[in-house]
């Protein structure tokens, strides 16, 4: 696996279209709604210079209670480990 080196191997979204706070808040609601409706442990939306990621975590292995970890990144960097042959 080829592990990317920061920042050389990363794409910068700093100059992407600016996403408004109102839209970011809508994305957060959509991600949480998606997790509540469809299940799973992660939902995300990205566009322009912004990505929103919501993770669902259970308090422990024996609990049905959970919380959401919500991350909003504006002007983020991204890379993957896809090996081209």
Q: What is the strand tally?
A: 5
Q: How far is the N terminus from the C terminus? A: 12 Å
Computed over alpha carbons, the radius of gyration is: 16 Å
Gross geometry: flat
The helix fraction, in percent, is 10-25%
Largest sheet: 3 strands, antiparallel
Q: What is the number of helical segments per DSSP (H or I, 4+ residues)?
A: 1
Mean pLDDT: 95
Provide the structure class.
alpha+beta
Main sheet: strand order: 2-3-4
Reading the helices and strands in chain order gives: EHEEEE
The fraction of residues in strands falls at 25-35%
Which residues sit in consecutive blocks of at least 5 with pLDDT less than 50? Answer: none
Descriptive keywords:
alpha+beta, 85 residues, two-stranded antiparallel sheet, 3-stranded antiparallel β-sheet, 1 helix
Give an overview of the whole structure.
By secondary structure, the protein is an alpha+beta fold. It has a domain at 20-73. Helix content is 21%, strand content 33%. It has one helix and five strands. The protein has one helix at residues 21-38; strands at residues 11-12, 42-47, 50-58, 66-74, 77-78. The strands form two sheets. It has a three-stranded antiparallel β-sheet with strand order 2-3-4, with helices on one face. A two-stranded antiparallel sheet has the order 1-5. It is flat. The termini are close together. The mean pLDDT is 95.
List the helices and strands and how they pair.
Layout: E1 11-12, H1 21-38, E2 42-47, E3 50-58, E4 66-74, E5 77-78
Antiparallel strand pairs: 1-5, 2-3, 3-4
């Amino acid at each position: 696996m080829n592990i990317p080196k920061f920042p050389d191997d990363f794409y910068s979204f700093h100059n992407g279209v600016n996403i408004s706070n109102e839209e970011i808040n809508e994305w957060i609601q959509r991600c949480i709604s998606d997790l509540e409706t469809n299940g799973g442990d992660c939902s995300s939306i990205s566009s322009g210079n912004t990505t929103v990621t919501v993770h669902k975590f259970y308090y422990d292995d024996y609990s049905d209670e959970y919380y959401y970890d919500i991350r909003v990144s504006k002007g983020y960097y991204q890379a993957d480990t896809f090996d081209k042959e």
